[in-house]
């Protein structure tokens, strides 16, 4: 791969720009791929929470966990959960407990395979050690600037 600048010049580049550019590229690619199979990223998040739950989760639990991801917000997350219920991928009982349907499981498997492909695409030529270092450096930037971030 050809980099934008020499190592000497890269060390002077702003992290804010490059982290933003990486965010935009990854999110745009992920969202376009998910749209290609008929879903959104927040719908995928919610479906994955229900599909992978060790114990049954309620709508409130799923919504509270996901609403701050990429600044989605509570109203949008609730709407996305409504959509996957309307799609027939999950059900909600009177107590707000969510369950995955057979159709939802089949769609989840399809979307999970796509996510695996996207992971491999993003990580091409990047070792686990480089990836780990990158995440630790980004978390350090967040810490050093007084920010807060946490992912389940």
Automatic annotation (TrEMBL):
InterPro entries, per the entry: WH-like_DNA-bd_sf, WH_DNA-bd_sf
Listed SUPFAM superfamilies: Winged helix' DNA-binding domain (SSF46785)
The protein's name in its UniProt record: MarR family winged helix-turn-helix transcriptional regulator
